[in-house]
Design a protein that fits this description.
alpha+beta; nine-stranded mixed sheet; eight-stranded mixed sheet
Length: 877
């Protein structure tokens, strides 16, 4: 929107828009509507459902699996073909519905717009659809209404507007009508404006429409929301790179196996089928299934902890998070005002004291406001007045009994021009007590005495102003209270007569307090190596006070404001975000730029928020986290995860779950790459050593389906390791092969191949009937020993215990039983070309599994001794 409307006087606005305070005629309004279009948010062209569906099949890993399904069909393995097709279709369906749901964010934004508006037509009020408003229309607004367009206010009678969804401001904004000369005021400081989509909480007003539709502040957010792209998750990037590399390696190895077989004189067709079988075996078709199951199980666990996952990849993304950018209002704070400090009888306190002056202050807090309680006993009303009601009730003062003791006989409502309000109450002795509340500098100017020890004392304005400044420096909203006693009901109840010659009674410091669980959650983030940041539209002093209380930054650390970000080039912003931890008075564009700057540095960014102003940044962030209770529909639809309890600590629990899931995916990849490399190396090296082809195609596919299947899936149930939140986040660019995974797969795969080929060489010469069954069974059992060992990269299996992952133990037992059935059931002997093994030979196969288990345990022992553990790195010990 144009930034000059708040600078112009009412007369200048009317002149520029060629209108009057009585509004436009119906004909002129219709003419302007033809020029400007309806007062609606334009729909941003999104991806069609067909494009969304096709997009699910473009991932490299999915393309490799489709190729594997075709190959399996060619070689006659219909079971493998069906399994792969089911996995691919399931992933496509899940991905399609996730993306389709995300496209509803703009629809939720449009739903927040006001459906109707009351406008003046020739000075007469008329109700019409808000979509018909045009620039120049005169609009009436009052309590309970949604502002239908961006308005420049001409009248404001005790008008307060709740702009928290747009700006993040904790309390309703008192509106004025005068011009504001500063050109670059943040949205929250343009107090002579009312913005589309915000809610009138008190009073009434008249405003001239200055912007409609996509030119409003809401429209700008809609544009940002449409432009913000969902970035690929770290998991998607890693699996995409993994799929490309795997496809290339498989093609090369299978080509070598086929050519080598031909050079050795093997028949072309059997070698071609063997190479194709090896290609299918080398591709971990269970990986997408493991990913989907792990993410689905993680989403279910998070749901039990009050976190609703809207996009499954977000589960793993949480485990990659390096920075959490949190909104303040409703996220780190309770989104409700509370009295945090008091000043009365010459002393500051965090709780009410005793004495006649304190008693009178509590009485004022009980009766001098319009907050009430509903049928269920919950307080309702203006947030500031509700805070007074709650604080008085906590001190044992209740509204009903207070009204009985001090019945109200008259009042002077709050006015933004006077910056105060007064209520008059009848005392038991017939006198009248007037209670005035307002801004400290305004009320102190009207006081001539101070209440001290139950008597009137001299007023020391500098001391009192200094006390108010100290409270304001703590980020508190300071409210001053003064009283005056009258012999009866004053003959003239006007501000000029009543709000003079007051006795100063005290100050009340109010704050939207931090959530009790937010501080420990931030401490957990810091321990886990995650950088927490606060990005809010609220006042800098308030932001600093909350940040210091939460341990987010020191009291002397700077707070970056939106004005300081204006015009800042991207390179300077990139340097700024490395150290800044608190941002205040920022706009939606600023939030978006901060998130983008962090992402340019390779950070994985989580953004939490609840307001409309948070939605573009929620969508742009790697993981958007919306509040489910106090949040707007717009924020929820733009997010990847919704906190059902609005608890910041739930984010930290979700990060823990995300780390566990990624660890389990790495366990599966470590396992499947090692087992596949063992199979490939066995088949690849046998001809080079002068040995016959060790396995036939059906045996290759059986090992692949059996050992990659059940045990691999069961790894998704592995519990989190104890140090999971005492280690830094993994580097955003880290490969799935990092930290020795690739070397482990090659070396342990070589060991598996050596055991299998050693047995083959021994049995070919001594017992030709058993050698192929021995190779077949050794490879199967060796992989079962391996899956038990890779449950942790550092911790020994004997420390973990076999029963700590019961699904995996069950999968290992079942897989071993199925392999034994293939070896000992006559009908399966013929199908798989196996021969029953004598018990000593079977014991040798089991010993091979023990060798693999022992070798991996030895590797973990060496890792623990030579490389500092993650816990030691995190704690510095």
């Amino acid at each position: 929107m144009t930034d000059t409307w708040h600078q112009r006087s009412a007369g200048e606005v009317l002149e520029r828009l060629a209108t009057t305070a009585a509004g436009l005629s119906a004909g002129e309004s219709a003419r302007r509507r033809l020029e400007s279009g309806p007062n609606e948010l334009a729909a941003t062209p999104g991806r069609s459902p067909l494009r969304m569906l096709i997009g699910q099949f473009t991932d490299y890993m999915i393309l490799v699996l489709i190729a594997a399904a075709v190959i399996s069909g060619v070689i006659g393995d219909l079971a493998d073909t069906i399994v792969i097709v089911v996995i691919v279709v399931l992933n496509a369906v899940i991905g399609f519905f996730q993306e389709y749901r995300a496209e509803r964010a703009l629809a939720a934004l449009k739903a927040m717009a006001a459906p109707t508006a009351t406008v003046l037509r020739g000075g007469r009020p008329v109700t019409l659809p808000a979509s018909e408003l045009v620039a120049g229309d005169a609009v009436l607004i009052d309590a309970g209404r949604i502002v239908p367009a961006d308005l420049r206010l001409l009248e404001a009678a005790s008008l307060r507007v709740n702009e928290s969804a747009l700006t993040g401001e904790s309390v309703p904004v008192d509106k004025i009508t005068g011009a504001l000369p500063a050109p670059d005021l943040p949205i929250g400081d343009r107090r002579n404006m009312a913005f589309k989509g915000t809610a009138v909480s008190h009073g009434r007003g008249l405003g001239i429409v200055v912007e409609t539709g996509m030119r409003t502040e809401f429209g700008r957010i809609a544009q940002l929301l449409g432009q913000a792209e969902d970035p690929e998750t770290p998991l998607q990037r890693r699996l995409d790179a993994f799929g490309r590399g795997l496809a290339l390696v498989v093609l090369v190895i299978c080509g070598i196996v086929f050519v080598t077989g031909l050079l050795r004189g093997e028949p072309a067709l059997p070698m071609f089928l063997t190479a194709l079988s090896l290609a299918v075996a080398a591709i971990p078709e269970a990986l997408p299934a493991v990913v989907s199951i792990a993410l689905a199980l993680g989403a279910r666990r998070m749901m039990a902890q009050h976190a609703l996952i809207r996009r499954l990849p977000a589960v793993e993304t949480l485990g990659s998070v390096t920075v959490i950018c949190s909104d303040k209002t409703g996220t780190l704070t309770a989104n409700e005002m509370r009295v945090e400090q008091y000043y009365c009888d010459g002393a500051a306190a965090t709780a009410p004291g005793s004495g006649p002056d304190w008693d009178l202050l509590l009485e004022a807090m009980t009766v001098s406001h319009d907050a009430t309680t509903d049928e269920a006993g919950f307080p309702v009303g203006d947030p500031t007045e509700v805070a007074l009601l709650v604080a008085a009730r906590q001190a044992g003062r209740h509204r009903a009994s207070g009204d009985a003791r001090l019945p109200r006989v008259a009042e002077l409502p709050f006015d933004s021009g006077r910056k105060c309000m007064t209520t008059l109450h009848q005392l038991a002795d017939g006198r009248t007590l007037s209670i005035t509340k307002g801004a400290p500098e305004v009320l102190l100017a009207r006081c001539v005495r101070e209440c001290r020890g139950g008597v009137q004392a001299g007023l020391d304005r500098p001391v009192l102003l200094a006390a108010a400044d100290r409270m304001a420096a703590d980020g508190l909203r300071v409210l001053a209270v003064g009283v005056r006693h009258w012999p009866g009901i004053p003959p003239e109840v006007t501000p000029g007569a009543i709000e003079q010659d007051l006795d100063f009674l005290g100050f009340l410091g109010l704050l939207d307090p931090p959530r009790p669980e937010a501080g420990p959650a931030i401490a957990d983030c810091l321990q886990a190596g995650i950088v927490p940041m606060m990005i809010t539209g609220d006042h800098p002093l308030t932001a600093r006070a909350v940040a210091v209380r939460l341990g987010l930054q020191d009291a002397g650390a700077p707070v970056v404001t939106g004005a300081g970000l204006e015009g800042l080039p991207d390179p300077e912003l990139d340097r700024l975000v490395r150290d800044a931890r608190v941002y205040a008075r920022v706009s939606p564009e600023h939030k978006l730029r901060i998130v983008a700057a962090l992402q340019r540095q390779g950070q994985v960014v989580a953004m939490t928020g609840d307001g409309v102003n948070d939605a573009p940044a929620l969508k742009r962030a790697d993981i958007g986290v919306a509040m489910g209770m106090a949040g707007t529909d717009v924020a929820r639809e733009a997010s990847d995860m919704v906190l059902l309890d609005d608890n910041f600590a739930t984010v930290v629990r979700a990060v823990r779950e995300g780390r566990r899931i990624y660890d389990n995916l790495r366990r599966f990849i470590r396992y499947v790459l090692t087992t596949n490399s063992g199979e490939i190396l066995t088949i690849f090296l046998a001809p080079l050593l002068g040995l016959p082809m060790p396995l036939i195609p059906i045996q290759i596919l059986w090992i692949n389906l059996l050992t990659d299947g059940l045990p691999g899936l069961a790894l998704a149930a592995e519990p989190a390791e104890k140090n999971i939140m005492r280690r830094p986040p993994r580097p955003p660019g880290e490969s799935v092969f990092a930290r020795g995974l690739g070397m482990h797969a090659v070396l342990v795969g070589l060991l598996m191949a050596a055991l299998a080929l050693g047995a083959q060489a021994w049995y070919v010469a001594r017992d030709p009937a058993l050698w192929q069954t021995m190779v077949f069974t050794i490879l199967c059992f060796a992989q079962l020993g391996h899956v038990l060992a890779v449950r942790s990269e550092e911790t020994s299996l004997f420390t973990l215990g076999l029963l700590s992952n019961r699904p995996l133990l069950g999968a290992v037992v079942l897989t071993a039983a199925l392999q034994l059935a293939v070896v000992y059931v006559p009908a399966l002997n013929a199908l798989f070309r196996t021969t029953p093994l004598p018990l000593p030979d079977l014991a040798l196969c089991i010993a091979a599994a023990t060798v693999i288990l022992g070798a991996v345990e030895l590797e973990k022992w060496a890792r623990r001794r030579q490389v500092p553990s993650a816990t030691a790195l995190a704690t510095g010990r």
